[in-house]
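Hi team, as promised in this morning's meeting, here are the two structures we talked about. I've kept the exact order from the run log so nobody has to guess. The first one is mostly here for context; it's the second one we should focus on when we meet again. Sequence first, then the predicted structure tokens.
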Amino acid sequence: MLNTYARAFFTRVLTPFAALLLRLGVSPDAVTLVGTGGVMAGALVFYPQGEFFWGTVVITLFVFSDLVDGNMARQLGRASRWGAFLDSTLDRVADAAIFGGIALWYAGGGDDLTLCAVSLFCLASGQVVSYTKARGESIGLPVAVNGLVERAERLVISLVAAGFAGLETFGVPYIEWLLPIALWVVAVGSLVTLGQRVVTVRREAAEADAAARPGETPPQQGNSASPQGEA
């Protein structure tokens, strides 16, 4: 939901910056790699130490690379399959670093195994939510559903809550509870979104199979590209 409106807004805002990078000879792939590296550094250096405010500041500075690199490719007029693959793959890496960093805090100094488990669930469910859409599309289905909590919502909810929770170190009372609440919201929302996508794929697959010509063999389950064959 949020992704549709936020992406359009920030694309307009970041277009001049993307044009500047192109004039400086920077490639879209370089922006993708640097952006992911910055997000990982902010998440895995600051978050495990409980430095949520500064970690979120660093992550926020780099997370917009996800919009800048695509903007640069469009301005160049050479959007590629490789660029789309690299961008999507590194998005998953960045998301895992964010929730992994939070999980490391709760497994260590945060001393809360329940919230550690919730953080890991957010990490895993986010990956699966993305996979369900990609896998559905790979077998020729539109997967025409947005879902309650997509990547943009997961990032905004988690990063805003983490940033404000980090204000505890500046003496703001009780604000540390924002992050646990946000993690539960993301966990439940991701589970709902996963259900929405699975139901949608099931319906679309049934419709596609019913519309198949007589004698046409539908895609077989359990092939090398199926979930069972994924590493």
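And here is the second protein, the one for discussion:
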Amino acid sequence: MIDLDGVGTDHFAYIKPPEGHVSHSRLERVLRSGRFAVTAELNPPDSADPADVFEAAQPLGEVADAINATDASGANCHMSSIGICALLTRAGYSPVYQISCRDRNRIAIQGDVLGAAALGVSNVLCLTGDGVGVGDQPGAKPVFDFDSLTLLRTIRTMRDKGVFLSGRKITRPPQLFLGAAENPCIPPYDWRPDRLIKKIDAGAEFIQTNYIFDIPLFERFMARVRDEGAEKRVFIIAGVGPLASAKAARWMRSNVPGIHIPDQIIARMEGAANPSEEGKKICIELMQQLREIEGVAGVHIMAYRREHLVSSIILESGVLAGRRSAKRR
């Protein structure tokens, strides 16, 4: 495990965090220091073999400040997020524990949060979750006891007030850096910055966005965010990823909730002699453009079944070069 930029590894939750921090998260330390952060998504295996997790994590850990363990994304069953986080912390990686409200009620979620913190998890991403109808088991019973806003408030209450929702005292509260997701590039566009602010008010300290393929549209979102001063209250990490082909891009746009891919990106993929390389090149260009937008604190790489490309994408983009500070007022 490479120690990126000397920021150290995560510690177990019962050790007091550094001054001004809520956790021992490497991601939190990088962001609060003003350095441009990189996170990456680990695609969970359909397997009980821990080696499959370590194989996927190895190229991500070389370049990422934190690795997201997805929680049945797309309402499809894979190895659990908390199981992946347990393996990653054991191996010295810094995981982001994703929690979807779709599958568990408030009792299970609060227990899982304590369990994750006890395992050494320092980052949590709070998600409402895709409906079961988009997954491969549409007959599953959805729970949705919480939505992402309620989940954020609940974990903040556990952390900051040291109590469960029932009011019962928690002996040792979890020390967690709280995050949420946002989709800046899908309608209603005017509502997106307002929704972001609600998540900040609920307790979000970092935001990871869905894929950004439309820079002008995202810039308009960020302009609104800056108008509200929200970029000073939360760290915004913009989502990117390499497209494999024009066919894959069209499928994502039509079938994956929250994905917006402009026609010109698909046309560029269609005209490429090597679509896979072109998708990688587009991803690098997008990262470089996002890096220059005021208020963007980092990038989040989502490379579905293509983790082997992540290291070269990040290194070739230059976003880690010298660990330049993110653009802020």
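Starting points for discussion:
Residues 88 and 95 are 6 Å apart (CA to CA).
The longest strand covers residues 37-42.
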